[in-house]
Amino acid sequence: MRPGPVVVLLHGFPEFWWSWRHVIPSLAASFRVVAPDLRGYHLSAKPSSGYDLTTLAGDVAAFVEHLGAPARVAAHDWGGLVAYQTAMDRPDVVERLAILNAPHPDAWIAAWLSHPEQQRKSWYVFLDLLPDFPEEFYLEQFRTGTIRLAKVMPPEDVETYRRAFEIPGAATAAINYYRELVRDMPRRRHVAPRRITCPVSVLWGSLDAALEPVLNDIARDWIDDFTVTYFPQNWHWLAEEQPRAVTEHLEEFFGPAAEGS
Q1: Distance CA 54, CA 121 (A)
Q2: Which of 62, 141, 154, 194 fits as disulfide partner to 147, beta carbons 3.0 to 4.6 Å?
Q3: Which residues does 69 contact at the CB level (< 8 Å), separation at least 6?
Q4: Is residue 1 situated within a structural domain?
């Protein structure tokens, strides 16, 4: 692995490390870039438990410590929720945080309780609470090409994600992230989130079918240094839809000026 500052890239649902393939080559010219599979996804271990945000954030913190903490972290979708939690629980391991269309977990809970449009967009989360059915539901969407990924990706890319999602245990592990978040909602809604002290830069596709921009307005109150850049013509998968813009942003945000921050 090349010398230099560590950059960790965290993928979302229902993807794996490959979602960063367009971003990695340019970043690797200046950074030690590592893109792991999150717990349960693709080739990672698939234990029966440990899909709560505290445990997932512990996975990331241990990984970053192994690489040589702290790290600059970029994260999308569920990777973003885990990254936000890591920055709250272990500020010593996250130097800078870039988020691509992912909610702060407590902002998502607050918006679900108070924002009708976010409630409407979150319908699928409660489908995910059912036993067994969600796994087959998403696999059928993959097979029929109706999964949301297909909005912005060619069929061969969707097929790559389908094969990863069909690995035994992967679908259940991925859906357990949702199940654990909802299970933890009653506790989290009564606990003030820890402040995030590292700089946070959000890139946000405005056409996202699952997440409302109000999530960023809520999260802003819990983050010391917070900026948002909106992409009005893009959806949820900016690293796939706008890889050059995402790469250039990360190079600037994580670049030499950030060293020693």
Answers
A1: 25
A2: 141
A3: 6, 61, 92, 93
A4: no
Inter-CA distances, 178 with 5, 92, 151, 173, Å: 32, 27, 22, 10
CATH code: domain of residue 111: 3.40.50.1820
Residues known to be catalytic: 77, 178, 236
**Closest listed residue to residue 4, CA positions, set 67, 65, 62, 60:** 67
Q: What is the residue-wise DSSP string for 128-145?
A: TTSSSHHHHHHHHHHHHT
pLDDT at 255: 86
Q: How far apart are CA 51 and CA 92, in angstroms?
A: 22
- Structural domain of 251: 6-258
Cα(172)–Cα(140) distance, integer angstroms: 14
pTM to 2 decimal places: 0.95
Tell me the two tokens of residue 197: 């002290």
User: What are the structure tokens assigned to 248, written together?
Assistant: 């250039």
3-state secondary structure of 254: coil
Instruction: Give 124-140 pLDDT, tens digit per residue.
Output: 888 899 988 999 999 99
> Which pair of structure tokens corresponds to residue 172?
């259940």
**Bridge pairing between strands 6-10 and 223-231:** unpaired
205: which strand partners? 231
Number of domains in the chain: 1
8 A C-beta contact, residue 13 and residue 68: no
**Three-state SS at 200:** strand
In this model, does residue 12 exceed pLDDT 60?
A: yes
Residue with tokens 């050059």: 244
Mean pLDDT computed over every residue of the chain: 94
d(CA 124, CA 147): 12
| Residue 204, helix vs strand vs coil | strand
